[in-house]
TrEMBL record, chains A, B:
PROSITE patterns xref list: NUDIX (PS51462), NUDIX_BOX (PS00893)
One Pfam family cited in the UniProt record for this chain: NUDIX
Record-linked InterPro entries: Nudix_hydrolase, NUDIX_hydrolase-like_dom_sf, NUDIX_hydrolase_CS, NUDIX_hydrolase_dom
Source organism (scientific name): Coleofasciculus chthonoplastes PCC 7420
Domain Nudix hydrolase residues, every copy: 3-133
Gene Ontology MF: a single term: hydrolase activity
Protein name: Hydrolase, NUDIX family, putative
Sorted UniProt keywords: Hydrolase
PANTHER family referenced in this protein's UniProt entry, alphabetically: ADP-RIBOSE PYROPHOSPHATASE, DIHYDRONEOPTERIN TRIPHOSPHATE DIPHOSPHATASE
Assigned protein family: Belongs to the Nudix hydrolase family.
Amino acid sequence: MTYRNPVPTVDIIVELIDRPSRPIILIERKNPPLGWAIPGGFVDYGESVETAAVREAKEEIGLQVELIEQFHVYSAPDRDPRKHTLSIVFLATGTGEPQAADDAKNLNIFNLWEIPTNLCFDHDQILRDYRRYRHYQVRPRY
Amino acid sequence: MTYRNPVPTVDIIVELIDRPSRPIILIERKNPPLGWAIPGGFVDYGESVETAAVREAKEEIGLQVELIEQFHVYSAPDRDPRKHTLSIVFLATGTGEPQAADDAKNLNIFNLWEIPTNLCFDHDQILRDYRRYRHYQVRPRY
């Protein structure tokens, strides 16, 4: 089956608001491409991107998150080595103890000044843009 | 062919910056659903959403637009009567005389206080959100 269109996904940057400095959650992927990434996944047919974002956060990190806002859409054709995907990135808040599950083999909690690089996909770029927004309220523009 | 994922589209709100009050362009659709709409179309496989937005503006209204920013993503499963689509809405600027072509049978230029209702898809909602943003700098949030 060949897609004629990029496949939509969501990624969710979850800030843990019951901890100092609102750290965020990254997951270690169970399936290729292996490595660390922002939690997320494919949007199902018949599901809004908001529903998909809440569902994926529940599935991968075990938290009932609250969406704050859409951040930005990333869609470079080479961003995913498997096929052309686009990602709608959400900002969300969560509380409590996240648990890795589903496509996530492991997870870790990072302060904003500790975020690792060499993440999967274009997630380094996404987190650079996120940090710029969180520190300076500057969104990606053209 | 059944899609397992919503199909990504782009819509482009083009402000004509060489005219008083920066009016916007709406098109009359040539194909069902018939009616007035924001210019836009499907994102091709291998094409970023930015490339798709510039291409669709060129095809439907004959203008080389400049993208300003992403506005918001709309993805309610019933927003398009044909199938589940999601739309990444862009704000852009253009100058000169737009010409309807391709999927656009006709076009018209509207000041912000003259925008019609009963548009196709969820474009009434999109333009309400856009007007709120343009007047008050308030984005759609949750």
